[in-house]
What we know:
CATH superfamily: Histidine kinase-like ATPase, C-terminal domain
CATH topology: Heat Shock Protein 90
Number of domains: 1
Number of strands: 5
Structural class: alpha+beta
Amino acid sequence: MIAEFQIQGQDFKKAGEASFEIKNRLKRLGLPPVIIRRVATASYEAELNVIVYAHKGTIRVDLGDQGVEVKVTDEGPGIPDIAMAMQEGYSTAPPYVKQLGYGSGMGLPNIKKNSDWMEIQSEVNRGTTLRFRVNLNESQSRDR
Length: 144
């Protein structure tokens, strides 16, 4: 395991801290900058989703045989319509979150764009589990 972070919902002051630390740890491991950028971007989006929507959550980062794997679990409202949530610009963020500059509806689409594999499981009123991977082998990675 590279790292595990506890994220508190509505703690906007700490938004980005976990993804920043993930980026630093991947740098120390000597991973290629393009891999680091993609993991950090997707992790940031996932971290913000927990802060905006959930009561709390966990981000776990592992280095597997195929690449950097991230699992984000939260205790939140769940996603009633995952297909709709995957559309760019679709957001259920409340107005105060949008006034803070978050909730533009780009989180899940940006995670998908920056990962080579992504899976979401969600149950309304229970929470969401998001997994994604960025491959280390460029031949297995999507073109960037």
